[in-house]
Amino acid sequence: MVDFVKNIIKAKVPVWAHYGDTDIVCNFLIGERVATKLGIELLTPKNPWIFEDQIGGTVTKYDGFTLLTGKFKYTVKMD
Prior knowledge:
Blueprint: H1 2-10, E1 15-20, H2 28-38, E2 42-51, E3 54-62, E4 65-70
GO biological process, one term: proteolysis
GO molecular function: serine-type carboxypeptidase activity
Organism: Meloidogyne incognita
């Protein structure tokens, strides 16, 4: 998977990965591990993002890769 994401980033396509910060199965630690394995430059360390005057989660920006967490447990597919 890491090689696949590297190829997308090399093609100048921005990649976003989002995780629920309380999801125990597919949590933000996986995203952080992927970012480390990609070996890309950290542009902006982890910072909170705000929604309606409340912390909605955190965002960490790398070169071509953004890691986002949110105050949710999982992602639901929307058709």
